[in-house]
Amino acid sequence: MELGKIARLALLSAALGMVAAPSYAQDKPAAGDAQKAPDAAAGPGPMSANPPAPPQPNWVKICNTDPNAKKEVCLTSRDLRTETGQTIASIAVRVVSGENKKFVLAAVPPGLLIQPGVRIAVDQNSPTNGKYSICFPNACYAELEINDAFFNNMKKGSNLVLQAMNQQAKTLNFPISLAGFTKAYEGPAADPKAIEEYKKEMNEGLNRLAEQQRNKLQAPSTPVPPSDGGPSIGDKAPVKGQ
Questions:
Q1: How confident is the model over 189-209, as a mean pLDDT?
Q2: What's 107's domain CATH number?
Q3: N or C: which end of the chain has fewer CB within 10 A?
Q4: Alpha-carbon distance 231 to 24, whole Å?
Q5: Please, what sign has the CA dihedral across residues 111, 115, 116, 117?
Q6: Which domain holds residue 86?
């Protein structure tokens, strides 16, 4: 499933909802908070990582209007993909017309520790911490408010690193190149028709994921025969002297 396109749609939907209630993600704790881990702020300061080796998609800008607040919400986002083309993380800068605040919205794989949240940093600059807002079967989403200094670092920086902790309390790094960010942010938004296409592909992707999960559950397990012709597991070994 193409998590990146689904991530942008989910982030855009969340962004539209946060215009009317901007404090929701900060005031309401995320589900699964019972699992404790060291606070992300207690970790190392500046983060470093090499840019991902596989070819990565470019930054893209998507805008839509919140029908309730009557304000335009724009996301400038980029995905991180593996060598097989699977999207494993996504980062987006959210801005709302008429407001000075800027937010970074991050998508990471599910199954990570909830309590530590995420951290992001540009090059060797100090990281910024954020908490998860919501989790879906395909990804978890976090929101971080950023100041002008952090945003300017993104515009002139080389790489951004998104950090999260796995269930073994080990830090996972998701490096995302900042090449092309400024051009996309300051340029025109993508065609609105692309948003409708994202919605269609999101539904198709969710259906494919559900079908894959059903196939995995229904697939019979195949016993592995002995490779050397010897006794199978469970056979009694010969007794010496008989």
A1: 69
A2: 2.60.40.1880
A3: C
A4: 61
A5: positive
A6: 60-194
